[in-house]
Amino acid sequence: MNNCIFDEIYKKVPKDQKERLRGFVVHIHKYVMIAGVDWEYISCGRGAEALVLLPGGARFGETWFRLIMALENEYRIISPTYPPATKMAELVDGIAHILESEDIEQAHLLRTSFGGWLAQCFIRKCPEKVDRLILSNTSGPDAISAKLVKDDAPAFRASAREALKTLYPQAQVHTFYNAGHTPGYIRTEEYVSIVRNFLQEK
Length: 202
Fold this sequence. Notes:
Number of domains: 1
Distance between the termini: 41 Å
Largest sheet: 6 strands, mixed
């Protein structure tokens, strides 16, 4: 994207945010056909370990751009954009195919919201492909909330959050206070620090 087009598209975005995004748009996007469906994903980073970032309902891999820029010097990163799909199994198979096409045998998985449901389906079908799993701002697949996020209201009811903890009793839990449904954007430094520390634990 040339600078004139970029500046026009993002002319109403605050300057500091626009410059961070300008530094991100140079990242490589790859394309692959899986079961007759076109998939697009970001592939970057230079670490020995792979980190797959699954977006939420926005569906675009670019939504992770802050985390990608913070961790790409430490991890090989894959961040897909979801194509139209009618079944979760189609997305699970697509993620598995992308890992195979990138010669990634095992990866850490970080997912938020809708991506958390996808991640839980993925780890049940392909447990051997997952090293560490991070579920962020999500619930168990059976506890989808009908309420949209508004102000600081949680997207998932307390009962759904507790059910998720029960589902994974050995999991570490970190609460981001007053960060709503998107702590990765609102509390970026804290979020990155928590993710980094967890992935580096032996």
